[in-house]
Amino acid sequence: MADQAQSLRELVWRTHSVARVLAVTSGKGGVGKSNTSVNLAIALAQHGRRVILIDADLGLANVEVLMGFNSVYTLQDVIDGERGIRDVLVNAPGGIRIVPGTSGLAKMADLPQSARQNVLTGLRDLQDQADFILIDTMAGIGQNAVGFTLAADEVLLITTPEPSAIVDAYAMLKTIYLRREDAVIRLVVNMAAYESQGKAVAAKLANVARQYLGRNLSYLGFIPRDPHVSQAVMQSNPFVLTYPNCPAATAMQQLAARVLQQQVETAPRKENFFRRFAQSLGIAG
Ligand SMILES: Nc1ncnc2c1ncn2[C@@H]1O[C@H](COP(=O)(O)OP(=O)(O)O)[C@@H](O)[C@H]1O
Ligand SMILES: [Mg+2]
Prior knowledge:
Layout: H1 2-13, E1 20-26, H2 33-45, E2 51-55, H3 63-67, H4 75-79, H5 85-88, E3 90-92, E4 96-99, H6 113-126, E5 132-136, H7 143-151, E6 154-159, H8 163-179, E7 185-192, H9 195-213, E8 218-224, H10 227-234, H11 239-242, H12 247-280
Parallel strand pairs: 1-5, 1-6, 2-4, 2-5, 6-7, 7-8
Antiparallel strand pairs: 3-4
Helix pairs in contact: 1-6, 1-7, 2-12, 8-9
Magnesium ion is lined by residues 33-34, 57, 60, 62.
């Protein structure tokens, strides 16, 4: 898995015209990863970006359920080597494209090498097809969740203000940093009662990260607890489309704006990495 993540990163860094890959992850399940992935993807598309969302929760794939459709082909066909990833890519509401997910394959590590290679090749084939590739991962520190997460350029770590979610978010943070020192992780606090609660959770996690891991943790923002979210889930229609002015949708637009803003801020880091990587191959002075 580490090799897979490494070779994917190399592919990602190879040129600047490739997609920015964001993994949406969490320590605990049910904190809002899928809703954040779907609605953030649409919000980014509303800014004119080409966005592909990969449903990589191999345990509980539900991007399609949230969006109200059902595809014939899924990531399973890619894993099995039956289809190329571009063949399973489908147009979805809100102007995004998705790679539909597959459930019941929770342990990616148990898949044969050929299956993992198929996924890796698939991700590479999408690199020039989008400005953003969002990956909705599965919760927890298991191989699969961490595998996709380590391969991404950036990680959006989702938590809620509940202590159990915060503790699990910290475990995830630690796992990612232990396995990838240069990981870029940004925290999103979902289901916050109000803005200051989001900030307080972020400050708490940032403190522990600094104290025990010697790392800074940046805070992307919060999404309020909003009944429109579950209403939209019940209708299989993403809330940024169904209730574009609800508090959660407004917050999602602000998160998208910050992600776009960071495009500019992260560019030098890519440049440095690219230069280091090129130097290590002896092709740049
Ligand atoms: N901001 C929110 N406000 C209210 N309810 C929410 C919010 N975010 C998520 N939920 C509820 O939590 C449930 C789980 O969210 P989901 O995105 O499926 O989590 P995950 O992908 O992390 O398991 C949703 O079905 C919804 O009912
Ligand atoms: Mg989910």
